[in-house]
Amino acid sequence: MGNAPKPNVRSEALSGFLYPKMVTIEPILDFDLEPFVEMLKLINPEWINIGADSKGHKMPEPSKEKVLALIEELKLFTDVKIKKNLNRLIR
Predict the structure, then answer these.
(1) Other Cβ atoms closer than 10 A to 55
(2) For every one of its 91 residues, what pLDDT tens digit does the chain have, with 9 covering 90 and above?
(3) Residue 72: phi, psi to the nearest 5?
(4) How many helices and strands (H and E) does the chain possess?
(5) How far apart are CA 3 and CA 85, in angstroms?
(6) I need a surface site. Which of 41, 42, 63, 76 has the fewest CB within 10 A?
(7) 16-30 core/surface letters (b: 16 or more CB in 10 A; e: else)
(8) Terminal Cα-to-Cα distance of the chain (whole angstroms)
């Protein structure tokens, strides 16, 4: 969004950092599970925060099933912290 580099460019840059990292996915937008997980693995974060659009910007959101599948995949290699506003999508 905006003038930020594309996510794959950012993940490649972060993969080279030696200090502990975390990722925040908020607001979560619709995604393709496998390439998204692979991109996040490349970063090797200590944890990932996931939250939803709490401001009502009407962005394309993933289905409940996609979010839950993402959480399960992420738990295989990092801690996942779910923000309260994500409950709107996963409950």
Answers:
(1) 9
(2) 578 888 888 888 888 888 899 999 999 999 999 999 999 999 999 999 999 998 888 899 999 999 999 999 999 999 999 999 999 999 9
(3) -65, -40
(4) 4, 3
(5) 26
(6) 76
(7) eeeeeeebebebbee
(8) 27
